[in-house]
Structure formats: C-alpha cells, structure tokens
Amino acid sequence: MRKMNEDNERIKRRYLQFLKTAKSRDASTVLKAAEGILRFEASTRYTSFKKFRIEQVIKFQDALDSEVNKQTRKPLSKSTIRSVLSANKKFFFWLADQQGYKSRIRHSDADYFNMNAKGARIASASRETPYPSMEMARHAFSYMPEETEIERRNKALFAFFMLTGARDGAVASLRLKHINMVDGCVYQDAREVKTKNSKTFTTYFLPVDPEYLDVFKGWMDFLRKEKLFGPDDALFPPPKNEVVDGSFKVTGFRRETYKTANALRQAIREAFLRADLPAFTPHAFRKTLVKWADTKYPSREAFKAFSQNIGHTSVITTISAYCPVSTERQAELIKQTG
Predict the structure, then answer these.
(1) pLDDT for res 173
(2) In the chain, what is the straight-line distance between the N-terminal and C-terminal CA atoms, in Å?
(3) Which of 4, 22, 26, 10 is nearest to 199 (CA)?
(4) Using CA atoms, how far apart are residues 244 and 254, in angstroms rounded to an integer?
(5) Helix (H, G, I), strand (E, B), or coil: what is residue 67?
(6) DSSP state for residue 325 in the 8-state scheme
(7) pTM value?
(8) What are phi and psi for residue 30, nearest 5 degrees?
(9) Are 76 and 35 in contact (CB under 8 A)?
C-alpha cells in the first residue's frame, strides 16, 4: 500500500509552516496537527486531498469510533477523537483557500469533521483528577533518601515543585541564572525556559513547609560551591555516565539541561511510590498548591497574586482548572439549610 502522496506532503508542509509561523503554535501543537491529518490521509489510502469527498470523512469517523488504543487495548477516548477531528477540520478550512484546492474544497466541507453532540459532551466533561494533600506530599518528601548526588537532586526537585508549582517542562529547562535566592524567586524567561504558551513571568517561593526551602538552598550551595556550576548550567542536571571498571556508572552531572521532563516526572512518581502512596506527577502539585492557596490567600487581591505566581493571566483559569468543587462538597453545600 502506498505510504505517501507527494502533492499531499507539499501542501501539508505549507500548512504546518503556517501553524508554526503565522499562528505561532508551539512544536507539540504542530506535531499533533500533523499526526491527526496523517491519520485521515492514511484512512483514504493516501488519496490526493484534491479528490476529497464527504464520504471519506464519514468512513474516517466510523474508523475512529472502532479504533483501539495500541497500549491500553481500549477504544480511543472521546477527547482523542475530538482532537484528531479538530486538526483535520482546521486543515481543510485552510485548504479551501489554497490555489489548486479552492475549486475542489469548500469551507463548509470542514464542518463534516465535527464530532456528534453526544461525543462532544463526553469529550469536554470535566473529571476530578487525583492530587496529593499537603500532608501526603510532606510524607513522601520525608521518605526520600539523600545518600547519593542523584538522590539529593531528586529531593531538591521535589522541594522546588512544592515551592513554586512550576510546570515540569519549564523546570527541566531552568538554569542557575534563573534563580534569585536573595529575593526568593524564579524568573521564567520564555526565551530560554520552556514555559506554556511562551509566557515570561516571575514566580516567588511559596511560604509552605520551611524544610522545602532549606533543602533547595542546600542544593543551590552544592551546585555552586562543590560542583562549581555557573549561571548557564542546569538547575536539575542529567547524570553523567562513564565507563568505570568495565561498566557504565554515574560519575557526576552534565551541565546541560534535560531535553524533556520525563526523568523529572519519574523521580516524583518514585518518591510517592516509596512512601506507599499513588504515583502522582509533578503537575498534580499545582492542584495541591491551589487548594492550599484557597485558604492561605482569602482576599481577592492575594489570590490574584498567587494566580499570577503560577503563570495564569486570569484568576478564572486558576479556579476553573485547579479548584473545582468536588461532588462531595457540592452535596454538602446544596444540603446546607443556612
């Protein structure tokens, strides 16, 4: 079976470049768009987009509904299906304006990639996601060893997530120069730090358990005084593996940052598992801290400051995404009689 259509490849390349430059989409968004379009293209056996027919979309939607996730062996989630269809809808709407295609594809054709109303409701339904309490986080932290340099790094990493609520992708790309220990803050400079939506902002250390700050201060001193790390070196560096006595062993740290946050996520998951707790990810800390801040910062101005501190432009984002009312609390409030 044919695996590529040259005309399709050329127009897809133009579209992805359009997303990257004209729409300022980040690399992950562009990649998801490319994967979604490729799925549709494969379903038509790489037929030219110039031969687009509505029947192709109907067949494609049926295929998505019956497709099974290769890892979980379960049907594709409605949110995944919605994402794939949305990628193709945007692509074909753009395609309808392109030379050589606008006489064959209409803007209204893109609407056939809409999800049915029932599926859309399921895909957009909000669900309660688990997160650790402040006590659970402190318990896991207390179980973390500090014997090796890697263990010291991981414990400082845990402390840093609790002090800042920073996103793991940003933390993986931080360097020592982004940390200001005098003012107690992190300058998340989007020119160098992988922040969400390339946003630049300053995060001040949160007044949580003082031991978190003590451990992080100790890590900063260790990097600067013992490892002789400079401003451009990684805050949480990858290990250096070298051959010692015929086998690879960790002999220190490299100075560059991690390319992804996978290792950081794994370190946090292992910390919770070691304490016989669920394997929470770093992102769960953000919800932990929002719940904490909801009590710590009761005034509107103070909570707005906290919202800015974790990188949100609008406090509505903080409340709706990280501070929903649980089903149990909903019942308590509704049943109150005053």
Answers:
(1) 96
(2) 69
(3) 26
(4) 17
(5) coil
(6) P
(7) 0.71
(8) -65, -40
(9) no
The architecture CATH gives domain 134-282: Orthogonal Bundle (1.10)
In angstroms, the Cα distances linking 290 to 108, 172, 233 are: 42, 22, 30
The type of residue at 48 is: S
- Distance between CA 224 and CA 230 in Å, rounded? 7
Tokens standing for residue 126: 């909000």
Domain boundaries, the chain: 6-124, 134-282
- Position 249 pLDDT exceeds 90: no
Average pLDDT over residues 103-112: 93
Reported as a single tens digit per residue, the pLDDT across 271-303 is: 999 999 999 999 999 999 999 998 899 899 999
Is the Cβ–Cβ distance between 144 and 274 less than 8 Å?
yes
Helix (H, G, I), strand (E, B) or coil at 185: strand
pLDDT in tens, 205-215: 999 999 999 99
Q: Which residues contact 242 (CB under 8 A, 6 or more apart)?
A: 248, 249, 251
